[in-house]
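Bench notes, afternoon.
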Amino acid sequence: MPLSPSRFLVLATLVLLPLAGAQAADYVVRSEDPNVLYEPKPELPSLKPFTRAAVMAKIGSRQPGEVSSARMVHLDPMNEFVGGDGRLAVWAARQRRNPHAIVLRKGYLTPADIATVLGPEAMEETAPGIFVARLPILVSRDATFHVDDSVQQLRLSEDAGSFLVNDGRLFVTDSAVIGWRESTNTPATYRYEKGYRPFVLSWGGTETYVVNSRFESLGYDESKSYGFSISQYTPAQAKIFKRPHPTGWVIDSEFDDMWFGFYCYEADDVVIARNTYRESIIYGIDPHDRSNRLIIAENHVSGTRKKHGIIISREVNNSWLFNNITTRNKLSGMVLDRQSSHNVVADNEFIDNGSDGLTLYESPDNIIWGNKAISNGSHGFRVRNSVGVKLYDNIAINNAYTGINGHAKVLPPGSRDLELDPYHDEFSMVIVGGRLVHNGGGPIAIEQPLSIEMAGVEMLAPTSETGFALDGVLGEHLHEVFDVMVRQKKAVVIELDNVKRKVEG
């Protein structure tokens, strides 16, 4: 529906204070019909297709497969773990021999099948429904591995160096996969960054489906060993194997004490929905590098110990992040980073996170709609070096700094590889509707934009008795801005003075 005058900036009896700056001469202010800025809310994808029944239907044939043991150095999908950095020595020390792996081929297999064929050296049922894997497990391209409801827990032994690599099809349904410390008969809880812990990884060309299951105490600080990962092969291997991007669903499940609760790399059409992520070490959910068309929805991410709750980074595009709740994470609740573009971030709640509610770094052309940022340790919404960002109907309440912060910044030398992660120190925003209430640094701070367009923003409950303080460009043009928005009841557009730019150029 079109914007109504009642949704324009609410001043009540407050005094507005401009803050000092040096930008006034560089910008011009004009009015605009507010309805020009109006856009309908983006249509969000339905989660109804992503159910347990749909996962079970994907299993297909249950023709029994084959189980064997083979040296890890002879298995191409294990190359990442046996070459360089002395990683082969990890498994050699634990197995006390040339390291072997369980290999699943040519059909449908379960943990019980492994235990029956290879015995306790590889897999043991230590109690009804409790299976301990003591070798790495490889699901080959022509195999389906199913951890089903007959398995209460699949324990991957930390002591013996077990982990799970999927190069075919992996299903975990109504079960649990746990990194297990046999020496203490407890989960392999986090101790330090480089301390080995079991992990689950699905390579390029694979399908991975998880529903109604639990993952605990997995992952550590080594490449592709982050906890639960869906990843294309490394660039060198991808050129050889020529497999498509991996895909999968992770739905209705729980993740505790993971290095990364979820990680993907060059993955397509992955669904991460209705999950709970608790006490992850680095990130709760971390889609990365050139992943596309993801659905990240209705997840609850809390207590991430070192960084952000949810982050998408390095060209994660054309995705939907909606109805997620992020709380009490060390840094930001959610981050869009490093040229992640054409995403929709809608109806999320970012509450009591240590840094921003939502952070956008160097990520243009994103839509931020109907989110709530409440009581976060920095800004409610922060936008840096990102053009074409649209914020509609967002709420920022009681954040330590500003409700909305936007700025351009030249990143310090050495802060990133500019060939891998180029950027422009420019930003622009459209801000329509929404409510900014009692934020410690004021409602909005804008520094060095290409343009800012605003309409219908409510600003309530200033923290100062003297009123609101608007920083940057808005403060420098305070009277013009409020003449347009309050007296004229129009949208305000602030943009660089192109005439002056041409003269100076």
